[in-house]
Amino acid sequence: MNDSASVTSVRPRRPRTWLRMLVMLVVMGLLAVGLIAFHRFKTRILTQVVHQITSQVPTIATATATTQPWQPQLHATGTLRASSGTDIAAEIAGIVDEIHFDSGQDVAAGALLLRLRPNDDDARLAQLQAAADLAGVTLHRDVRQLAAQGVAQSVVDTDAANLKAAQAQVGAQQALMAEKLVRAPFAGRLGVRQVDRGQYLAAGTAIVTLQALDPIFVDFFLPQQNTDSIAPGQSVVVESDSAPGRSFPGIVTAINPKIDSASRMVQVRASLHNADDALLPGMFVSVTLAAGAQSQRVTIPQTAVAYNPYGSVVFVVEQDGSGTDGKPKLVARQRFVTAGETRGDQVAILKGIAAGDQVVTAGQIKLRNNAQVLINNSLVPTNDAAPAPADQ
């Protein structure tokens, strides 16, 4: 019996499996109830938010489409060049003897700018002039002798030839001396002087630049497809960052008769008045060319157009009955439009919008087709055909 009791006392107890399963089921049930409650709470909150958002009427800004005179324009960048400009240089070498100009001076055509040292030019001229005078006296005397039959005709002919040769030498010497006087070939403004008195000047060395600034030319290039839209006499407007807020009118004076084979562009030149010398040769400028005849176009602000791959869209505000408060109910409806050229803040509409239509210019991102809207035009985008941005 002792052995049997001992065996019974060390036998392991069987685990209560049913109790563990019950606890696990209770826990799983509580988790499921919690998840369901949380999902219902989230759905209720989202529903309230969506309802609140959809129940609010979006506020937008609008503008009225108008009909305005529209001048087609071409835009390009150009470079200014003087109507006459050159780097003045002496034709022959010599020592600078006299300088008769200051840097930046305005000079008239033919004004003396510089004189090279004459050396023995005056003596050489006097010698040649004396020889020419003697040839003249000899010819005059022989002519009288010929009348008295004292000399032959050949002597008189030789004297006449000698006189012409002597006079030619005098003229050559005078031309040589004139080459030592450097004069302004045309009226204009001088640049910075590049030589000093006493300096040896080689032939062709630049002395100073001379530029005629009024009128001034602007050269620019346009694509070959625009050649039918340009002609001499058309008006242009030039703007430069060196003169902010100013525009310089001009006219087209010449069109290159050939197209550049590398760029397929045509060169155009226009002439501008530049009385106050605000424009200088070499400047980079913006050129606007009036091309074609003026026409009437329906225009709206550029901010009203949403450009998409499938087409351009504009929201138009229309009245759709009355609301619950008795006031007119305004809705925004999408319209596909054909947009044309732009001008400043404006864009021309070729199709889809008529004059008088009220278009949405701000707040389109909040809209859907046929959505009810409220209008608040206290702050509206600019709608200027020629805006002038200011640095702030």
Tell me what you see in this structure.
Among the domains are: 59-70 and 294-375, conserved putative lor/sdh protein from methanococcus maripaludis s2 fold, CATH 2.40.420; 75-82 and 213-290, Elongation Factor Tu (Ef-tu), domain 3 (Beta Barrel); 118-179, Helix Hairpins, CATH 1.10.287.470. The chain is 26% helix and 38% strand. The protein has 392 residues and is an alpha+beta fold. The chain contains four helices and 22 strands. The termini are far apart. The radius of gyration is 47 Å and the shape is elongated. Helix 3 runs antiparallel to helix 4. Strands 1, 2, 15, 16, 17, 18, 19, 20, 21 and 22 form a ten-stranded mixed sheet that branches. Strands 3-10-13-12-11-14 form a six-stranded antiparallel β-barrel.
